[in-house]
Amino acid sequence: MHYNPASIQLAVDTINELEKENKLGSIIIESCDKRWNATLDSDLVKKALQSEMKAAHDLGIEYGVPVVLGDQDINITVSELKNGAKEAVLDLIQPWNGGWERLVNSITSARKEAVPLGEEYLGAGAFFDPKLLGSSPVSFIKYPLSYLVKSPAYVFAIGALILLSGSDADAAGLDELSTTDLLESLLFSALETVIFARIFLKELLADRNVVLAENILQQCRNYKKKTSSGWFDNLLKEENVTDLANGAIYAPDSVVGRQEEGKVVVAVLGLAHLNGIKKLLTES
Q1: In angstroms, what CA-CA distances link 71 with 141, 174, 210?
Q2: Can you give the pLDDT at residue 81?
Q3: What domain range includes position 182?
Q4: Please, which of 21, 84, 96, 117 could form a disulfide with 199 given CB 3.0 to 4.6 Å?
């Protein structure tokens, strides 16, 4: 959970323990260069709004290991979100043209890829971890505050829309709502939920998982052992590791590339990404 003290501690403890055992390889964080540089430009974000990714980055720089910005470029993500929302709306208003079937299939396939279920994946216990939940109020304050610092105009615009819509609802009054009005409101909410599910599962999770998984695997290849066996070692053999950078985007103050046998790659990711990335690495 981003900005959660328990998550920050987990990242710090994991990295420190691996460094102590001389096993620390690369550190991959769930950010792109544009988002990361925007964070670095703000003193408040750097000092007061400490995140698990910033803590991991600082330790990586201190220990002299590669720090990779492993997420999809934010401009690509925003563009795909717009296109995904447009496709979802068009499918909703064209049921006679197979739109509803396409929409259902898109949501279902994205759910299977992004949020796979089974004993081999993290379950509800991970989401309801007591330490994570106990520290969650900090996240609920810091996460939106970080957006306020980095994009104040965007946050104020959204806040104004919420306030305006809330004032209209208060003025109308619940008592004056007819059954028809209520049904229309529920229908509109349901349609919004369908569109949100489509872009959340596909554009925000599944598509970004592919980029993150590729960057994780690429760094693992830099530390592959000379003798190999098993599915993961076979994946590592598929690509020449002499080009250590190999398209990876490193943090501005990070060392670029490293090749040592048997080191461990640490990926600091939001919980929602973990099962989907594991599925990609183990099955694709």
Answers
A1: 24, 44, 9
A2: 86
A3: 5-283
A4: 84
Residue in the structure block whose two tokens are 């408040």:
44
pTM of the shown model? 0.82
pLDDT at residue number 267: 97
Residue stretches of the chain with pLDDT short of 70: 41-48, 149-177, 227-246
Q: Residues 213, 280: contact at Cβ < 8 Å?
A: yes
Q: Which amino acid is at 76?
A: I
Give the span between the Cα atoms of 248 and 259, in whole angstroms.
Answer: 14
Residue 251: the pLDDT is: 93
How does DSSP assign 105-171, residue by residue? HHHHHHHHHHS--STTS--HHHHT-HHHHHTHHHHHHHHHHHHHHH-HHHHHHHHHHHHHHHHHHHH
Q: Into how many domains does the chain fold?
A: 1
Residues 6 or more apart in contact with residue 196 via CB below 8 angstroms: none
User: Can you read off the two tokens belonging to residue 128?
Assistant: 């309801």
Task: Read off the pLDDT of residues 247-264 as tens digits, 9 standing for 90 and up.
Answer: 789 999 898 877 788 899
- Which residues are within 8 A (CB) of 162 and not within 5 positions of it... i.e. 6 or more apart? none
Which two structure tokens, joined as six digits, stand for 78?
Answer: 């925003």
3-class SS at 24? strand
Instruction: Give the contacts of 249 (CB within 8 A, at least 6 positions apart).
Output: 32, 33, 68, 69, 70
